[in-house]
Amino acid sequence: MSWVLFSLTALMAGTTWLPSVYADEAEWIWAPVKTSADKAAGLSFFRRKLNLRGAESGEIWIRCDQQYLLYVNGVKIGSGKDWSQQDFYDISPYLLNGTNVIAVEGLKSEPGPAGLAASVLIKDQSGSTSSYSTNNAWRTSVRRQMGWQQRGFRDARWQAARSLGKLGATPPWGEVAGGKSKSKRARFEVMREFRVEWVVKGKDTGSLLAISFDEFGNILASRENGPLLLVLDSNKDKIADDVTVYCDQLKNCQGILGMNGEVYATADGPEGAALYRLRDTDRDGVADKVAAIVKFKGRMQEHGPHGLRLGPDGLIYMVCGNQTQLATPPLEASPHRYVYEGDLVQPRYEDPRGHARNIKAPGGIILRVAPDGSVLERFAGGLRNPYDIAFDGHGELLTWDADMEWDQGTSWYRPTRIHQVTAGAEFGWRSGWAKWPSHYIDSLPAVLETGNGSPTGLAFYDHVMYPARYHGMLFMGDWARGQIMAVQLARNGAGYKGTAKVFLEGHPLNVTDLEVGPDGWLYLCTGGRGTEGGIYRVTWTGSVPRQVQDLGQGIEVALRQPQLDSAYARQRIAVVKQKLGAGWEQQLTKIARQTEAPVKRRTRALQLMQLFGPAPPEDLLRELLADRDANVRGMAVYLIGVRGAAEFADRLAKLLEDPEPWVQRRACEALVRGGYPLPVDRLIPLLASNDRYVAWAAAKALQTVPVDRWQEKVLNSPYQRVVLAGSAAMLSAHPDTATCQAILQQMRTLMRGFVSDANFLDLLRICQLAVGRGELDEQEKAAFATQLSAEYPAGNAMINRELIRLLACLQASGIADRLLEQLEAGLETEDRIHLAVHAPHFVTGLSSPQRFKMLEHFVALREAVTSSNQAEYLDVAARDFVSRMSDSERVEVLAQAERWPQAALGAIARLPASLEEGQLQQLQALDQKLASREDQPAEKLRIGIAAVLARSQAPTAMAYLRKLYDQEPERRGVLAMGLAQVRDANNWPYLVRCLPIVEGNAAQEVIAALADMDLAPQSPRPVRDLILQGLKQNSDAGRRQILALLEKWTGHRMGGADDPPASRLAAWQDWFAEQYPDQPEAKLPGPSRDDRYTYQQLLHYLASDQGREGDAGHGAAVFRKADCAKCHRHGPQGKGIGPDLTTVASRLQEKEILQSIVYPSHVISDRYGTKVVET
């Protein structure tokens, strides 16, 4: 690649690119302080953005006085506490095309010298290495801000880091090594007494997405974008090590389950994305039968179908992300059967970046499937994107779900959380700002919130090889934080509570799945998003007594077999059953009855009968319903629900009054699942339970009963909790207008008396459902709004949020002044954002000065937020707010648009199509004032101004747009769309000139305009540009549009109407070459093998932050040294043989200049073209 490229781009845009030879060594840096560095105790946060294209590898050598945490693109990579030790990290797995960020949290816990030094080296695919080592190009802050380590965080207000001197030559750290240390940082940090061991290295597996074990202890592993693998134990050392392909018909498996000699997998396959059943009928280690039993629309994706588990009922449970679309709907009688959005304020604000935009309820789901696919039920919903699920020893299902990290700092963000998933559970994920808070009465809460994270595999430990304190523990993989968490769960009524700790941390640890192996060790695989794969296991270094490992003989082997949920455990148990014959059922029945036996032994006996048959006899289950142990009663109740025998109806009804909430909840679920008659009078009191899981199960049961059997009893109950929980159940399942009106009236009655804060929160949610789901008349809404207004503001932030939602929907303008007062009351930022985004619904209650004061709050909040997502939510709200102001106020907003650019878009949008000349001049003047700004709100406002001017079609507006087209090359695509609105001779040459640069919608607008004009070019160049534009089109519709215009311009026709458009364009290329042999061919340029960088790589680089931070001085030096000056002039330098480059940036777009450098023969001016004259 010619050095001319770098000189011209530097001169054009003030940018340069320097090879790594110019990279300085790492410097010690810290946040700027008023005094010397020895007074710098406390936290400092550092960020360095890098824009990468085709990065092959990356590494960081880092040290910090005193402590550091290192992140790459929001993923925690490592930490350290000893500045004298330089730590090494391979960051290759976490590098992305585009913007990347290295983020470091530095801590100095006591007065004294503080400093951070890091060498960041990135090697691209050409072998060139670039340095991004610590210096004053790093940004820093002493304040922790939400999402500061993420790529999308806005650090424009952060300061430049203070350089303290070169690494290796700066006191007090002295001559510490600035190069690579002799020792690398340990890859893994694991709990004491444990060790991490390789099983299969990444070179043999590739990037892995999921693992499981088959009946014989072999590992099944799915390669990203590749087949399902089988890892065999080739040398019989009980460690799987030989990688083979088990099924090459499947790709991207994200869930694997071995069962009964078959393998189930969620994957792309012969029938698209589906749950597939695989069989190896000839037992050669390769699947030869592949059948889809549950089909999905589209392909596998990160938010699609994921993990699989065999449930205690013998059915398959499958977790699916929120973008999963079933090809066939689940059964209407599914446990999760009532689906609604549940948000009140419309229109909904969706994610500004488009994530999950317009994804509707139920979002992420858990499906329950018969092994042959004959039954498909939706078991639970309202999740976002959990990757895995796991059953504990009691048959309870758990999952781990994360929220969108971009939303941190808003009232609708929910931390990563563990959920206990009961039948019909709803967890309230909705797109955009519509997510339900955890306290909503029509959803279930989290077991445990675990902060930020990227959940992957889950595994319950039910083996004997780890110490007893780990038995029954839930292990969870976190891809983003590079950790495996260990969670201790404890029964909490009908649900669980938990505590979490870090079990294993890697540097890095891109863990994707977990399983407990036959040897009792925890296995994990790594990979995802093209990162390094491999399989590891975590062993305990202690000694397990032989008697603990010995499973005994006969039935004892089945009762004590570890990891019942695994294929290898079930295989071993099946062998025991076969050997015992009739003694199998007899012994298990006897053990289940032994009240003096350990509870786990008795419940395991019941589980074995359910999974392996014969099912527990009815007399045994009837007897166990009265057992003194709640775990035994609960297991018996569950199995009765699975069986559905009519004679158990009365016994189950009595268990609704069991002293244990866990048994009460399971009795509710069993009554519904078994299709038993539902005892309404015994279910209603459970609605008052303080245990949300019990009240939820009772509500789910009542929803299956005709509402006229229980509505009056609920609404007339003297117990507030019954009224509230029952009303929520009615509104979820039976939201007819009469029911909504009756419930709203009851809520208004309750509000006149004493209601606790907790009950009032639930009451407000019920009012939201009644208002949102019922067709209430305006008079009724107005009366309710007046009553509700008196409650705002309350002394509880959660209550205020729900009040604002309701009052905004009801257009209760009477509280608008109080909303403004609250914004000035020093609330937390997330509460201020909550008020601001709802403010458009209160415009009518504000005076004109108050409305402009509200705009000032939008400005102040936008400056206070820490992520672009927060800012863009505020921008949308500001535009909506202004759009509801009066015409005269919008004129004032436009007059101050420099201060309120995001709000001014709302004013622009409401301008009439026909504008007076004075208004046009005002818009043009505003556009000129904004021209020097580069912030996003100003850029968006200028686009809006251009659109309004174009819509007016006024001659002066068109003249102004043509002037801008000439002066601002980078905006020509937008301006061309505006000029295309008036199809006359004045705009014709501009529309023709823009053919080489317009793309997408702009290209379609321009082609349509040219086709509508009775003009044709007189020179060959526009024809060539039009052919090239056709070659860039991605659809036949676009190609046909261009073919029609070519025929109109030239009077020629190439090919028949039925010929493929691509082949007809090829014929036009040949025609052009024949007609105009002295012109460049009508071919798109392509990369050369000699190019160090492709055109697209360079264009992407120039658009990056780094690409815009060049040094024109370096560019001038290259301009001279590369002999560019021999032909080209720039200012006083150079000669005028070739084009003058002094004003090239004002004539051509950046991409046009770059194209002329990379492909100098693609476009040649007639003035500088050369010809061969033959005589």
What is the topological layout?
Layout: H1 4-13, E1 27-30, E2 42-52, E3 55-65, E4 67-72, E5 75-80, E6 87-90, E7 98-108, E8 115-124, E9 129-131, E10 139-141, E11 159-160, E12 162-166, E13 188-190, E14 194-201, H2 202-205, E15 208-213, E16 219-223, E17 228-232, E18 242-247, E19 251-259, E20 262-269, E21 272-279, E22 289-295, E23 305-310, E24 316-320, E25 364-369, E26 376-383, E27 389-391, E28 397-401, E29 416-421, E30 448-451, E31 455-460, E32 474-478, E33 483-492, E34 495-506, E35 511-516, E36 522-526, E37 534-540, H3 546-549, H4 555-560, H5 567-580, H6 583-593, H7 599-612, H8 618-624, H9 630-643, H10 649-655, H11 661-673, H12 680-683, H13 692-703, H14 711-715, H15 720-733, H16 737-751, H17 757-773, H18 778-789, H19 797-809, H20 816-823, H21 829-838, H22 848-864, H23 868-883, H24 887-895, H25 901-909, H26 917-930, H27 936-952, H28 955-967, H29 972-979, H30 988-993, H31 1000-1011, H32 1020-1032, H33 1036-1050, H34 1061-1075, H35 1095-1102, H36 1112-1121, E38 1129-1130, E39 1133-1134, H37 1144-1147, H38 1150-1158
Antiparallel strand pairs: 1-12, 2-7, 2-10, 3-6, 3-8, 4-5, 4-7, 8-9, 10-11, 13-34, 14-37, 15-16, 16-17, 17-18, 19-20, 20-21, 21-22, 23-24, 24-25, 25-26, 27-28, 28-29, 29-30, 31-32, 32-33, 33-34, 35-36, 36-37, 38-39
Helix pairs in contact: 1-36, 1-38, 6-7, 7-9, 9-11, 10-11, 11-13, 13-15, 15-16, 15-17, 16-17, 17-19, 19-21, 21-22, 21-23, 22-23, 23-25, 24-25, 25-27, 26-27, 27-29, 28-29, 29-31, 31-33, 32-33, 32-34, 33-34
